[in-house]
Amino acid sequence: MPTAPAGTIENVDIARVFGAVADLLELDRANPFRVRAYRSAARTVETLNASCDTLVRTDPKALERYPGIGKDLAGKIAEIVQTGELALLRELTTKLPEGLVEIVRIPGLGPKRARQIFDSLGVGSVDELEQAARAGRLRTLPGLGVTTEGRILKAIADRRAAGTRVKLAEAEAYVLPLLEYLRQAPGAKAVDVAGSYRRRCETVGDVDVLVATARPAEVAGRFLSYPQVKDVLAGGDTKCSVVLRSGLQVDLRIVPEKSFGAALHYFTGSKAHNIAIRTLGVQRGLKINEYGVFRGARRVTGKTEVEVFKAVGLPWIPPELREHRGEIDAARDGRLPALVGLEQIRGDLQMHSTYTDGKNTVAEMAAACRARGYAYMAMTDHTKAVRVAGGLDRDGFLEQFAEIDRVQKTLPGIRILKGAEVDILTDGSLDLDDATLTELDVVVASVHANLTLGRTEMTQRIVRALQHPRVQILGHPTSRILGKRPGFAVDMEAVIRVAREEGVLLEINAHPNRLDLNDVHIAMARETGVKLVISTDSHRVDELASMRYGVDQARRGWCQPDDIANTRPWTALEKLLR
DNA sequence: GCCGTTTTCGGCCCGACTGTTTTCAGTCG
After folding, report:
1. Strand B proximal residues, A:285-314, Cβ < 7 Å
2. Which nucleotide is nearest to A70 (CA to C1')?
3. Spatial separation of the C-alpha atoms in residues A383 and A154, rounded to whole Å
4. Averaged confidence pLDDT in chain A
5. Which domains occur in chain A, in start order?
6. Does A180 have pLDDT greater than 50?
7. Edge-to-edge, what's the strand order for the sheet holding A298-301?
8. Confidence band, pLDDT 50/70/90 cuts, at residue A1
9. Which end of chain A is less packed: N or C, by CB atoms within 10 Å?
10. Which nucleotide lies nearest residue A104, CA to C1'?
11. pLDDT of residue A415 exceeding 70
């Protein structure tokens, strides 16, 4: 049996295999609960705060302690870690074309229809599906008509035109005006957003808006006539679904006022969280749906979310935690974290000025930080290796130090820290001399170039940088750009371990295009005892407001104020920075 | 495939909308 080298299988790789198995099993008309088991295991593995690879090699039994992973799936995880593949997946892919999986992702088509189309027409890819629809062959199948054929063609075209998921900040720009518009609907008692948007996921697939009203038809009518609506996908009195001109899909749910809490809970999700809560309900003889909590035909409660949680014996759980990653157990045991909030942030430790690629001067950035109520801020311009940004050498920094001293005199009430975002060169050395590094208050070290290095080399590169005695913070630790490039390959478990040993803080980069670290790595760092900082990496004053997205991300990683170093006053933070 | 205060079998969350169906299956969230 071929054995993969240690530490090369990431949890996401295993999750991807399980997800593919689930997709194909579903197409193979397997037991739906077996399919669910693979999906659930994929999610569990992907969000595990420990590496499956390491567990398999050290304590394989431990895998079975995680929810949804039994003897069989633990064995399959071991198989993937040890051989780099899964025999079951290989069998399934020889049986069914991989293109079928893409067909299932087309809105309106599910596994049953996809399989029916494959079996009767031999259609096994999206391209073939499009040809069959154009030729009018789909309408010959039982249960499919001309309308469906047209919808499928449109869905294929839409998929090509629009991207898939939208960044949270972008979605906000479309959603806030829509909420304002709906609040003016006659009879709208409460208007709120649920779904992944409310859970503050870094990207959202669509937006779920909830309205409480006694006049559903009028609210639905107003929604469907929103000027930004491009297409209406569904239009009932309790559910409407539209696509805005921006391409963003918005689902509207309309409920009576007394059901608002139950509906808000249900539509906030996540799906896995909801299933777990409803299962708790079933154990107590309760039925929970979007209209309330029921015992038999009698409605027990449901006006507020607090009541819904209380009905299953739990305190209210913040939306950011509702991913079925242990929040229900924590709630039951009174172990829910007191999550960090934006108001607790006392300073911003990464930003740029006109000295490099920033658009505002040191004085402007400092004044804006003071206006935000911060006690301190770090000016962290680039070093010279980052040529596109016009990075500074020692002389450049000395010039900036003098400017900071001048600005500081005119701007009491905020401490302006002298910092740098030092480039980590390919060999892991730093792009600034030790003398200058020693004069800085805050040293952030980040990778900017040569992102395609192999996993082992990249890990060594970052570990070496962390071991430099002057490095205090690792900036945007994976250098991902949402929707554009994934983070580079790196053994994050090793990076976190070394950060812990060296006393280096990890940055949660709050820029809405980065949000780097992600929630899972944040949780991993926190559980390892590594402190984090939330920084905006602002290049202009208005970007300082991105801090809240970084706080959202930290909350999704279960961070309390103590986990976030920049909730501390400067004197306490200074002690934490080695 | 998982799970257990209904424990090793027999369950597994729940409802709305659509299209094509004369009563419901498929899809979605």
Report:
1. 287-291
2. B2
3. 50
4. 91
5. 11-95 (1.10.150.110), 99-161 (1.10.150.20), 166-255 (3.30.460.10), 259-332 (3.30.210.10), 342-576 (3.20.20.140)
6. yes
7. A287-289, A292-295, A298-301
8. very low
9. N
10. B27
11. yes
